[in-house]
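Reference record:
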Amino acid sequence: MIRFSTWGMSGTIATADARTEDFARERLEHWINEFDRCVNRFLATSDLSRINERGASAYVMSPTFEMVLRASLDAADMTNGLCDPTILNALAALGYDRDYDELASGTNDTGARADVPGVSAISYDPSRHLLDLAPGVRLDFGATAKALLSDVLVSELAPFGGVLVEVGGDVAVDGDGPDGPFVIGLATSLSVTGDEPRISIRRGGVATSSSTTRIWRHGERVVNHVIDPRTGDCASGSLAVATVAAPSCVIANAFATAALLWDEDAAYYIAQAGHAARLVFRDGRVDVVGGWSRDEVAA
């Protein structure tokens, strides 16, 4: 098993065949470097930082940047625009314009709420690999990039046997582990007690989004990192944690993020899309969707 840290998060790679681990380490290093070079908004030298600073007009994208952009646009499309890559101005207005560890250590009051322009402000020409942004639009690929890293690594490692990749709690799996299906715990907060619900998974992705983690003070309010594109403000509904299982980690992440904004309607939208989910509300209610086991709720 390989344990690693990146982007302020922990990660894990587990393979059915230990002989795959050296290759897994090489591919992990490659893709983290690629994502840093292309889409890390906290690195001033990244492609994304340059675009956010100078704008984009007929910008020729690298293959990695284009892959992340395409995944982000797909996430927006499948969630009716709620998982939106054009939220950076709104995040920054709430204070998330620096590393999270620095952000969480104090009180931030960086300005008025900012509108989210939406994906209509992005012009993407896949045939020529060109990107144009409307003036003032800045992009954040955060959650989608994290999920995509898990999916990409699994796709490269799966031909050599069963593999699980987890980055910051978002999981992609293909095949069995050395002792049968991989088993994962479902986090409901940043603290791990060992008593978290567990599920087994053979293929696909599982992602969790929460409005009670990655929080900080902004003026007199406690705010979080999940931005509602309809308002430019953070998620504030009754749903605290959403865990979604879907055919890929990117899809699971998109629906877990959108679930916090759909709030009480999340079960309907997730079921309509054919996915499964476990939803935890602030009042302690737990609901399950799709093929998720109802044993915990019944108990």
About this structure: The longest strand covers residues 203-210. The two ends are 34 Å apart (CA to CA). The chain is about 30% helix and 25% strand. The chain has a mean pLDDT of 87.
